[in-house]
Amino acid sequence: xxxxxxxxxxxxxxxxxxxxxxxxxxxxxxxxxxxxxxxxxxxxxxxxxxxxxxxxxxxxxxxxxxxxxxxxxxxxxxxxxxxxxxxxxxxxxxxxxxxxxxxxxxxxxxxxxxxxxxxxxxxxxxxxxxxxxxxxxxxxxxx
Length: 143
Known about the structure:
The protein has 5 helices and 7 strands; from the N terminus they run αβααββαββββα. It is an alpha+beta fold and about 140 residues long.
């Protein structure tokens, strides 16, 4: 888990939030009716949200630039609740980590920390952990 934080800290040109409070974390888990996996908790406590290498990970906390609470598509509660509202097939006990903004593709995380690709009624496991997904996100683009 600490590897995830170290790896994210080493990413060049990283946009990051300020991290979240324990109160924000508890409220988010209650709002979504799920327990966040340990890696996700460590991520939101340390960063809140991140943007790098064309990936925007949702989270909680405060903006590094404005000091305002993370909102809109960067807020995991807003993003996950919106998907639950518009997609009757959205899996329960999952949060939206990232909206790929391509053909309805979402990257989601379950309570155990496994990462999935959800596209409408299809849900396919991609990785066993958020760290493994981050490793994939950091691969150089193929030319």
